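Query structure, 417 tokens:
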């Protein structure tokens, strides 16, 4: 029976002395160290080559930007007030929620649909009826910010009377009559210069004459959002659409990732969330000047006014120390974008730099003072929080850009007063 070779431990190599006076063990260890150094050198050479090539192939020139990490204390003390509730299922990416006078909810979905959610007679959403107001497909050719999604992407909604105004990341601004479901295209992406790249959210003046909406970035669409985040550029805009005259006006530009929108209580300014800098900013409607900014503990998204005339700012993507390092190192961001595919890069950055499970709603007043906050810190009820809506009975609807449901939080559980 033939004998099989055995892998002997290193100690068995030390018995034999070679001609040069060294043992086999010493020769083996030198060879192993040499190979390790060689492959380390090749690995570093490959990494440096990729970084240099990526720097010059990058789709953008990155600039230095600071990401603030706020201490969660005082009115920002973490809690679990949003961690319990129910879900309205089978709704992919319901990024924004609004409610009509009959208690029906409206939301836009990642598959392009705008839907109405009708609760049961007792107000429960457990067996709610979901009705399509649009199918998400565009029959008439329209200019689009991207064709990658293959459908519309309604991201911001507001109700005024019987009209549901919708900002769509792909096609612009339109309205739907919630009674007869008639559709009106108001602003196409080519109606302004530079053209709209990433229309995101909106609000309507109290008299119903003006629609204020944001364009996140003038370089990148929703399908390329990570390039906008990593570039550090501030090229977002706030625009005003006059419903009567159909005129369009740029209120201000150079916003850092213009996202959520809310007309202020005094009607003289508009509050915009700048998600690239984790802050919200008051902007004078007439002059476009920045009045004040308030730093947020997360990447802020949707803004809404609540019953006590304060505002809710919803968001997730809480930055960590790696985010602070990454955004303080423009060369690294630029190089990574040059050789890592966008979708892979987005996963890497969001997983390593932010916690999308950490959901926060911050309440602030019109002077920018933080009153208190509510958390779902581990994503027990929802994740990727984008919008929080106070319903007529005090419940809170939690919208998300990536979840497949709307979260509903009961005020009896909250005890927020």
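Result returned for the query:
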């Amino acid at each position: 029976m033939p004998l099989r070779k055995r892998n002997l431990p290193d100690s068995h190599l030390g018995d034999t002395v070679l001609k040069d006076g060294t043992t086999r063990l010493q020769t083996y260890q030198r060879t192993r160290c040499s190979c390790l150094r060689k492959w380390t050198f090749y690995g570093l050479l490959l990494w440096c080559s990729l970084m240099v090539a990526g720097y010059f192939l990058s789709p953008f020139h990155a600039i230095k930007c600071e990401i603030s990490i706020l201490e969660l204390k005082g009115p920002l003390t973490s809690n679990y007030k949003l961690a319990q509730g129910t879900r309205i299922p089978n709704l992919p990416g319901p990024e924004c929620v609004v409610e009509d006078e009959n208690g029906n909810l409206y939301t836009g979905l990642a598959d392009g649909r705008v839907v109405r959610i009708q609760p049961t007679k007792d107000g429960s959403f457990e067996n709610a009826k979901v009705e399509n107001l649009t199918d998400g497909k565009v029959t008439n050719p329209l200019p689009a910010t991207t064709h990658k999604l293959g459908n519309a992407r309604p991201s911001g909604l507001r109700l005024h009377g019987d009209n549901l105004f919708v900002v769509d990341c792909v096609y612009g601004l339109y309205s739907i009559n919630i009674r007869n479901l008639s559709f009106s295209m108001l602003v196409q992406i080519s109606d302004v210069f530079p053209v709209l790249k990433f229309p995101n959210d909106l609000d309507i003046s109290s008299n119903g004459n003006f629609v204020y909406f944001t364009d996140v970035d003038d370089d990148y669409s929703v399908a390329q959002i990570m390039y906008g985040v990593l570039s550090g550029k501030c090229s977002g805009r706030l625009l005003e659409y006059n419903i009567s005259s159909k005129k369009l006006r740029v209120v201000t530009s150079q916003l850092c990732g213009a996202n959520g929108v809310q007309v202020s209580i005094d009607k003289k300014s508009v509050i915009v969330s700048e998600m690239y800098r984790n802050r919200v900013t008051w902007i004078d409607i007439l002059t476009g000047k920045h009045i004040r900014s308030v730093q947020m503990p997360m990447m802020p998204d949707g803004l809404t006014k609540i019953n006590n005339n304060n505002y809710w700012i919803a968001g997730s993507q809480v930055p960590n120390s790696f985010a602070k390092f990454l955004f303080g190192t423009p060369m690294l961001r630029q190089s990574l974008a040059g050789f890592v595919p966008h979708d892979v890069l987005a996963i890497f950055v969001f997983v390593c730099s932010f916690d999308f499970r950490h959901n926060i709603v911050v309440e602030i007043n019109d002077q920018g003072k933080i009153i208190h906050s509510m958390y779902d810190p581990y994503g027990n009820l929802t994740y990727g929080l984008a919008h929080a809506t106070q319903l007529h009975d005090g419940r809170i609807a939690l919208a998300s850009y990536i979840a497949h449901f709307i979260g509903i939080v009961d005020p009896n559980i909250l005890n927020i007063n």
